């Protein structure tokens, strides 16, 4: 059952990535759908330490949002995914997300340098969050 839920998460993640690339917006509805699917995975795995880790992810995400370092949709999306990630894989998952996001930022900088115009729209971090979290959930299942 968990593998089917993971496939639903992957499918929904594609739509989130497209939305984040095109309009830089992650809707609350998508975050709630991700949370419900991840909650089902959480119930299936019975790892209750994930609740504490998810709460810390939510608090840190909103602090980063408050200091304009991360968007609110990104913080909610990371929280929604984190409930299904085993605590032993959460730090690795965050490192993968940071690496993919940094790679994305470097590519955007190189692209703007090549076009000779500054890139001012920000990094669409939804892609990095979706890919990293899907890896973390796959490792946790």
Task: Pick out its properties.
6 helices, 141 residues, mainly alpha, 80% helix, single chain
Question: What is the strand and helix layout of this fold?
Answer:
Elements: H1 2-23, H2 28-45, H3 49-66, H4 72-82, H5 87-115, H6 126-140
Characterize the structure shown.
This protein is mainly alpha-helical and 141 residues long. The protein is built from six helices and no strands.
Mean pLDDT: 91
Strand share of the residues?
Answer: under 5%
Radius of gyration, whole Å = 15 Å
- Major sheet summary line: none
Helix content: over 70%
Count of DSSP E strands? 0
- Could you say which structural class the secondary elements and strand pairing correspond to? mainly alpha
Order of SSEs: HHHHHH
Q: What is the CA–CA distance across the termini?
A: 10 Å
Q: Helical stretch count?
A: 6
Outline type: globular
Low-pLDDT parts are: none
What's this model, at a glance?
This protein has 141 residues and is an all-alpha fold. It is built from 6 helices and no strands.
